[in-house]
Amino acid sequence: MSTLADTAPVTRPRPRLAGSAATYGAGAIAVLLAAWWLAAAIPGFIPERVLPSPWEVVTRFGTLLADPFSGATLVGHAAVSLQRWGLGVLAALALGLPVGIALAWLPPLRAVVTPAFELIRYIPPFAWVPIAVLWFGASTTTQALIVFIAAFPACIINTQLAVAQVDPILVRAARTLGASSMTTLGQVVLPVAAPTIFTGLRIAFSNGWMALVGAELVVGKQGLGFLISQGQINDSAATILVGMTSIGVLGFAIDALLQRVQKFVLPWKPALARPLE
User: Fold this and answer.
1) The pLDDT of residue 209
2) Which domain holds residue 141?
3) How many domains, in total, are found in the chain?
4) Nearest to 261 by CA among 188, 183, 205, 178
5) 111-149 confidence digits (pLDDT tens)
6) Sign of the alpha-carbon dihedral angle for 232, 237, 242, 245
7) Residue 229 located in a structural domain
8) How far is CA 68 from the centre of its chain?
């Protein structure tokens, strides 16, 4: 007679690749650089003005770093971009998080706000650039506003979703024990929803960073987007690639830092959240 143990499916451990993710990532980058170097080294294969060699890009990178205290260098452009991005995402967090929580916690408010929000959030951030310039000129405020517009919907949507997905059994249990609505929200709902909210913040931060660079391409007078546009004007593909690489590296660093902060501040996982149906 077979037992339950005999009929249970056999689970085999997943095969693990030797080495770490960082090793494989570094290997992929090395292969990409080698292919780039080879493509640029073949005479007549790709024009130099279209794809300069990696060494030319490195040389241009060193030139742009020559005076790190000047606003016209790579460091100066990066600092300006980070300042604009920081102002925009901080404003989006300060307004988006409480609004998202309120929309999930107060159904009447959600019914009133959702139609207008759904209409506005589908307007691309770049569509706001002309009117932002009319309001504030080609200023830091304009760039920060575009970042805010790009990051704000992600803050609201992911915060609202995280709060709404908390298992209602937890809420009812807190109410049964005599907890008030605000106590239940602060001590039960938000701790469970916090990891998912942090994931939404990563999306908001990346949306804001990409929107900022696009806005700087159009109306910026400083910043990494402006550096790329100057490279186009000066017919310098190396400058463009330096700007693009800097944007990618800084974006990666921002996301990695946010993940570190999440692991330090929120070591738990959203295990008590209700799964999506």
Assistant:
1) 92
2) 79-265
3) 1
4) 205
5) 888 888 888 888 888 889 888 888 888 788 888 999 999
6) positive
7) yes
8) 26
Q: How far apart are CA 139 and CA 116, in angstroms?
A: 28
CB–CB of 235/212 below 8 Å? no
What residue has token string 């902060």? 261
Q: What is the CATH number of the domain that holds 254?
A: 1.10.3720.10
CA 51 to centroid of chain Cα atoms: 28
Indicate if the alpha-carbon torsion angle 208, 211, 213, 216 is positive or negative: negative
Q: Is residue 20 part of a domain?
A: no
CB atoms within 10 A of CB 90: 15
Tell me the chain's radius of gyration from C-alpha atoms: 24
In angstroms, the CA 70 to CA 234 distance is 20
Q: For residues 160-177, b (16+ Cβ closer than 10 Å) or e, as one string? A: bbbbbbbeeebbeebeee
- Cα separation, 234 vs 227, whole angstroms: 10
Task: Give the integer Cα–Cα distance in Å for 227 and 219.
Answer: 12
What residue type is assigned to position 262 of the chain? Q
Residue 57 lies in a domain: no
Whether 173 maps to a domain, the answer reads yes
- In degrees, rounded to 5, the angle at the alpha carbon of residue 102 between the alpha carbons of residues 101 and 107 is 120
Q: What is the pTM of this model?
A: 0.77
Q: How confident is the model at residue 14 (pLDDT cuts 50, 70, 90)?
A: low
- The 3-state DSSP class for residue 273 equals strand
Q: Which residues of 233-260 are buried (b: 16+ CB within 10 A; e: fewer)?
A: eeebbbbbbbbbebbeebbeebeeebee
What's the full length of the chain, in residues? 277
Classify 10 as helix, strand or coil: coil
Q: Is 150 exposed, middle or buried (0-12, 13-18, 19+ CB in 10 A)?
A: buried
Q: Where are the alpha helices (DSSP H) in 220-236?
A: 224-233
